[in-house]
Amino acid sequence: MHISSLPSQFGIGDLGTGCINFIDFLAHSGQQYWQLLPLGPTSEIFGNSPYMSSSAFAGNPLFICPEQLVQMGLLAQEDLLAGSFSEYAVDFSQVTAWKKGVIHRAWQTFQQQLSAAEQKSFFARLTGKHHWLRKFSLFMALKEQFNQQSWMEWPEKIRQCHDEALQEAEKELQEHIRYFQFEQYLFFNQWEKIQSHAREKGIKLIGDLPIYVALDSADVWAHQEIFTLTENGEPTQVAGVPPDYFSKTGQLWGNPLYRWESTGAVQEKLFSWWQQRLQAILSTVDIIRIDHFRGFESYWSVPAEEETALHGSWKPGPGISFFQEMGHRLEDLPIIAEDLGVITPAVEKLRDDLAFPGMKILLFAFDGDPENAYLPHNMPRNCVVYTGTHDNDTTVGWYLSEEVPSWSKELATIYANCQHPDAAHFHQQLIYLAQSSVAALCIFPMQDVLGFGNDCRMNQPGTARNNWQWRCAPRFLTDSLARELRKTTALFGRLPKQASQTKNKKDKKED
After folding, report:
1. Is the predicted pLDDT of residue 338 greater than 50, yes or no?
2. Burial class of residue 351, CB neighbours in 10 A (0-12, 13-18, 19+)
3. Has residue 511 been placed in a domain?
4. Strand partners, 287
5. What is the span of the domain harbouring residue 447?
6. Quick one: which of 70, 74, 146, 322 could link to 106 by a disulfide (CB 3.0–4.6 Å)?
7. Per-residue pLDDT at 248 exceeds 90
8. Which pLDDT value is given to residue 464?
């Protein structure tokens, strides 16, 4: 479940009480992992997708908890008086306008509380702690100054990051720059509290790292030499995937590609950027799910002028040498490989040579082929099994869908040994099936735990509207639901070891 989906009275999930309560719910349910979507800033221009962010490093200010700003003395209680927000869906326009107003009021108070010298010292320490923050905050201030135009439309010297032009902009936009740094201070201050609470409750956080970054991002603007761009900053080749299960014309993502073929100084800059990116996400989560892992073996390269992804070609990725280099630089790389879609033996070999667990999706299993890799009897131990992901229909939605053949649904119910197959219980059967598998780890979308239909689907790939909106109302996270989930988790030996040992001791004492 993503942060945005958490219960909150302010229209979107945040890093406050709803987040703390959800971690407590997971612990009570006997769970040990919480997987999130990318945490970066989002934009309505890109449909609020967490996979198209203005930064690969920054946090989303929409997740800042207003109640904690009151506790910090930056807001008064009356500042939290809000309009009517839905508890079932995020209205991003409404939430963004309100949350920006609240954070701006907190910023004004912050400025009043500190002298000019204290502010200078504060932001010097902050930018020293987060190496990426100086360029990111300048990028955001420039976006504001140029009416949210793409950086490719900026004046030439700013666009090309000439030192003198950037220094002049920093002086002119100092207060705006510090505001965006203040937002990041609030986000990471609150996130550290969430990390601490998760550790206390024995919950490990799984973060999501998209392989590509958005063209109109601080990362591409500040590091143009490591991407496939012209001297003017325009992409020559962009990312996507060929036709697949989701789209007959493929998916044209439009992200600029990396210069993996580079050598010398450019390659070192590219590898250093990736090192910093991996270090940053590992400072916020325990495990990384790399989205589109197959792009490291080979990637679909589409000429920038194309309107679909049909006329692309496969190009060789950096392969195992990249991960070996990152391993030397970082020592530990706890990674889950998102290996869905068009997967070749070469991709599987790269995954297995690195000993990264891949993903197995149960909703992809029931095509009538007994050798289907997603069927539990074909799964290896070193994998993560999912009932579905944020890109799939919910389990109940799948079962009720007229687009899914009836024979496929029947096969699923037979495989799950459903005695009385129906939509009301199918999600429970699939969770049971996943937990009974040999997969090292099971992850369930919260919608599947709750048994919700496709009106609660998180994302429809290939569409730009009405995605990423689903929210979980607090009354759905009940003690009875926690007990139910804990029951099947215990049945298949998936409880935390300490909890299992405690229960065994109690049972022996009662005997």
Report:
1. yes
2. buried
3. no
4. 206
5. 357-477
6. 74
7. no
8. 82
Q: What angle do CA 452, 453, 458 make, to 5 degrees?
A: 90
Catalytic-labelled residue, pool 14, 208, 219, 291: 291
Residue 166 lies in a domain: no
| CA distance linking residue 6 with residue 16, whole number of Å | 10
Residue of 14, 216, 297, 338 marked catalytic: 338
Q: Helices 133-145 & 174-200, crossing angle to 10 degrees?
A: 130
Query: What's the gap between Cα 471 and its chain centre?
Result: 16
- Phi and psi at residue 429, to the nearest 5°: -65, -40
Structure-block tokens of residue 414: 């037979």
Of the two residues 153 and 505, the one the predictor is more confident about is 153
Q: β-strands 298-303, 237-241: how paired?
A: antiparallel
Asked whether residue 214 is assigned to any structural domain, the reply reads: no
Cβ proximity of 354 and 414 under 8 Å: no
3-state secondary structure 237-291: EEEEECCCCCCCCCEEEEEECECCCCCHHHHHHHHHHHHHHHHHHHCCCCEEEEE
Q: How far apart are CA 341 and CA 335, in angstroms?
A: 18
d(CA 240, CA 256): 10
Q: Judge whether 354 and 323 are in contact, CB under 8 Å.
A: yes
Give the strand pairing for 251-256 and 237-241: antiparallel
Are the C-beta atoms of 471 and 4 separated by less than 8 Å?
yes
Domain annotation covers residue 386 = yes
* Distance from C-alpha of 350 to C-alpha of 363, rounded to nearest angstrom: 25
- For the chain, how many structural domains are there in total? 1
What ranges make up the beta strands (E) of 140-257? Answer: 204-210, 237-241, 251-256
Evaluated on CA atoms 203, 210, 65, 458, the torsion sign reads: negative
Is 338 one of the catalytic residues? yes
Confidence of residue 99 (pLDDT cuts 50, 70, 90): very high
